């Protein structure tokens, strides 16, 4: 495989230029090529965010990157996330460090940049085009994440607090499946709770896990409709 861009990865604590002779690196072994920092002139505020996918804290460079990680974390087909995964240098000497690398269960690799639309200036778009071309050559994908709607962002952050399955999940899962199989509202689950909060906490966790479906693009209330999408155990 030949590429006119130079790829630099960090493995075992050392930066190395990857030649792609025998394919790409094992992305599960990649380390961040730089550490997020903040100065008085910096636009970014570093974030240390726990990833349910990686089961550890990831060092991120902005709140938008945190939102991207949360969004990917909720997807059941994502198996690996690496922040600041590489440095791409074009043949003209232009360098760019993308924000995140994702690998799914099928082995597909996607390189991400997180940038709101109002900050996608000519310089960024040039570096994004460089990254996309470099990724296409080596069989990877490249995407730009510009954020979620306000409702989707707030709702995602809410259910992310219920990522960990409660110890009573199996019994509540069966009860929720029976209650929601034909569709119901959040208020129906709240009313079914015996004031111990078990059904409610299980509902939020199973929304995060994708077993209970809900519209993320609206403000949630007791009247918001939910539906069972999982397989009861």
Task: Please describe what this structure looks like.
It is elongated, with a radius of gyration of 21 Å. α4 crosses α6. The chain has six helices and 13 strands. It is of the alpha+beta class and 233 residues long. The protein has a four-stranded antiparallel beta sheet with strand order 2-1-6-7, covered by helices on one side. Helix content is 30%, strand content 24%. The chain has helices at residues 63-73, 122-138, 150-160, 169-180, 186-192, 198-209, and strands at residues 6-11, 14-18, 47-51, 56-60, 78-83, 87-89, 95-96, 100-104, 109-114, 141-145, 184-185, 212-214, 225-228. β6 (87-89) and β7 (95-96) form a beta hairpin.
Break the fold down into its secondary structure elements and pairings.
Layout: E1 6-11, E2 14-18, E3 47-51, E4 56-60, H1 63-73, E5 78-83, E6 87-89, E7 95-96, E8 100-104, E9 109-114, H2 122-138, E10 141-145, H3 150-160, H4 169-180, E11 184-185, H5 186-192, H6 198-209, E12 212-214, E13 225-228
Parallel strand pairs: 9-10
Antiparallel strand pairs: 1-2, 1-6, 3-4, 5-8, 6-7, 8-9, 11-13, 12-13
Helix pairs in contact: 4-6
